[in-house]
Amino acid sequence: MADDADIGSKLNTIFARILGLDEVRLEPGTTAADVEGWDSVTHVQLMVAIEKEFAMRFRTGEMARFTNVGQLVECIASRGRLAPASER
Amino acid sequence: MDTAAWSRLLAQADACDDYTEMIALCHRLKALERGGRPEGMTPLRLAVLGGATTEMLVEPLRLALAARGIAAEIFAAAYNQFIPEMLDPASETVRFRPQAAVVVNTPHNIAEWPAAEASAEEAGALAQRVCGQFLEPCRLLHERTGCEIALNNFHPFPARPAGNLGAKLPGDPDNFIRRLNTTLGDRAPAYVHLNDVASMAQRRGLDRWLDLRYWYAAKQPVSYECAPEYVRNTAALLGALFGRSKKCLVLDLDNTLWGGVIGDDGLEGIELGEGSPAGEAFKAFQLYVRALRERGVLLAVCSKNDEGNAGLPFERHPEMALRRDDFAAFKANWQPKSQNLEAIAAELNIGLDSLVFVDDNPAEREQVRQALPEVAVPEMTDEPADYPAILDNARYFEAATLTADDRRRTETYRQRQAASELRAGAADLTEYLKSLEMIATVAPIGDASIERATQLINKSNQFNLTTRRLTLSEVRAIAADPGRITRTVRLRDRFGDHGLISVLIAKVERGAVVVEDWLMSCRALNRGVERLLLNELIGAVRETGAQQIVGVYLPTAKNGLVKNHYRDLGFECVEDVAGWSEWRLNAAEAQPLSTFIELSEEPRWLTTQTSGAN
Predict the structure, then answer these.
(1) CB of B27 within 8 Å of any CB in chain A?
(2) Of A49, A57, A59, the CB nearest to B20
(3) What is the model's pTM?
(4) CA 20 to 30 Å from B193, out of B9, B137, B199, B330?
(5) Do B248-394 and B3-241 have the same topology in CATH?
(6) A22 touches chain B (CB under 8 A)
């Protein structure tokens, strides 16, 4: 299993980069409404950056369904670069 | 304003191939813009119309345009509204008054498909109809706004249910798309510029060009992997329309045009052409460069070599595809390359920002990048087989149209060089000008000259009094306006035909004629063409009954050359504010100025020119 804190810090960096913010601090309960600039357009851009960073592919129906950061981290932990190959 | 940060950002933007990186650069662009833009960027009002979602492309496109010297203000229409936005005379797009529009259409926007068993004739007729469904809205938008339009052609169909058989079935969707793309290319009018998605998807591979997950989830027209390429291609296409393409390719010799070092290895030792694999790759690159020259790109050599050695392969190597006279300038010496590039730009009378410098040696590239950041220096590999693709992908030399003058350009620059050699030998300027045996034709802008005139209007930087850029349709409207005087000048001399080299546009107002545009190709500098053109203008002004000719000089970073243009022609300065100046001449009293140019009423070489077809 990937380390959730490690994923969290990488996500903070990705969010700051895509949203053009100096610093982002995501918590498992953070939703789009809590973060400046996280809208439907930047959401897709975030998904793209996350796929690249964690060498994974979201499923077609999945990317629009995350309602908070915790669910996103869970998905990355199970299928991202750091997850065992059999689970990706 | 932080000039260094701007040039760093624009260089990174130009080379950027990663979407996420591009988004980060877009944020930097916005931050830098708060401190003001660099001087000399071309402003552009651009509409982005989507048959798909376009939000993810808008800011990257603005970034890629900035890298090409264009400051775009973008209006993005709502998702899949491109047809109504073009059809409705009061749409937001029309009211935005765009100078250019980018239409992001995909095969999903094709409304009708052939039946599976359709014949070639039926599929062909349908392709015509579907083409009309895209081109007719373009025509309406163009007529209402005068804007130039970049329209996608279509990437291959993502599924092949008929397998290989589809290649024989006119009703197969992929087969039909090929027919449609050909029809679009044949039918697109001058103001529709095809954004060649078909070619890009083919080059990258359709599996990489499309990521259907993002189509289903968010209607994204191109994968994020390939979005940067689509954006840069669009920016290059728009750049060509607004005078931002490069003009001259400057080439190193050793290990760039042939393998090995001519000074060390000698004629027998260098690798070029049949007989060695690397030699074949260098030959292929030479053929590519020659094709660039044939469509109007100027070539120059910049090599650290003895001049005698450097010329040897051009004279004596049987496999050379390029000849010495393919080059408008040739510098082989031991000076720093940056100095030679400056000399080449000066000799050809073009800006440093019109040069592309190709050299296999990373140290030379770095020296030029540091000394002359305006010069484009592509990152080369040490693999000559890559060279044509590297230049293709950088899209430096995009052209909106191809005119006969383009194909003749190197020749005219060479003629000018011969003329400057003659000047060195002539006793004085008068003798020199007489010896040129110049013949000019002066005529209003007409059907035969409008494309070249528009091109000149959008490319001339140095001899250009107001630097006003105009689209083809704007020029057409001006040419048809009875309240306007337009003149073009074609010039020929004993060294050859220079083609159409000067344009003047003036507006007839109450008692005065105001010169709105006066520009000339630098290849005709110091010939007296402007004196001849003033004489013609005075004649035309007298016919209108107006008394005064009013001229304006608007300074830019590049047009210092014509600061005293009106003074030298005998105008009086009536206002001079911060470099901007207004000038007047009494047309009724003005005496004709002497020139050494014979006027030809009948454009007697025009007929040979069009039928000669170069």
Answers:
(1) yes
(2) A49
(3) 0.73
(4) B9
(5) yes
(6) no
What whole-number distance in Å separates Cα of residue B274 and Cα of residue B261? 18
Please give the pLDDT value at position A86.
57
As given in the structure block, the two tokens for residue A28 are: 């498992």
Q: Using a CB–CB cutoff of 8 Å, tell me whether B577 touches chain A.
A: no
- Supply the ipTM of this predicted assembly: 0.88
Cβ proximity of A17 and B23 under 8 Å? yes
Closest CA to B162 of B195, B93, B114, B207: B114
Spatial distance between the Cα atoms of B106 and B50, rounded to a whole number of angstroms: 9
Q: Rounded mean pLDDT of B166-176?
A: 97
Q: What is the pLDDT of residues B562-604, one digit of tens each?
A: 999 999 999 999 999 888 999 999 998 888 898 999 998 754 4
Query: Cα separation of B249 and B366, whole Å?
Result: 17
Whole-number pLDDT of residue A82: 64
**Buried b or exposed e, range B323-355, using 16+ CB within 10 angstroms:** eeebbbbbbbeeeebbebbbbbbebbbbbbbbb
Is A65 in the B-facing interface, judged by CB distances under 8 Å?
Answer: no
With an 8 Å Cβ cutoff, are B20 and A18 in contact?
Answer: yes
- Give start and end residues of each alpha helix (H) in B16-88: 19-33, 55-67, 82-87
On whether the CB atoms of residues B582 and B573 are closer than 8 A, the answer is yes
Q: Domains of chain B: which residue ranges?
A: 3-241, 248-394, 427-612
The four Cα atoms B28, B397, B280, B340 give a dihedral, to 10 degrees, of -80
Cβ(B23)–Cβ(B59) under 8 Å?
A: yes
Neighbours of B370 (CB within 10 A): 9
pLDDT score of A84? 57
- Residue with more model confidence, A2 or B234: B234
Q: What is the pLDDT of residue B238?
A: 96
The reply to whether residue B56 touches residue A44, judged by beta carbons under 8 angstroms, is yes
The CA distance from A29 to the nearest CA of chain B, in Å, is: 24
CATH of range B427-612; options 1.20.1440.60, 3.40.630.30, 3.40.50.1370, 2.70.70.10? 3.40.630.30
The fourth-level CATH superfamily of domain B3-241 is SGNH hydrolase (3.40.50.1110)
Q: What's domain A4-87's architecture?
A: Orthogonal Bundle (1.10)
CATH architecture of the domain formed by B248-394: 3-Layer(aba) Sandwich (3.40)
Determine the pLDDT at residue B496: 75
- pLDDT-wise least confident of B266-270, B357-361, B494-498: B494-498
Helix (H/G/I), strand (E/B), else coil: B54: coil
Other CB atoms within a 10 A radius of the CB of residue B186 amount to 10
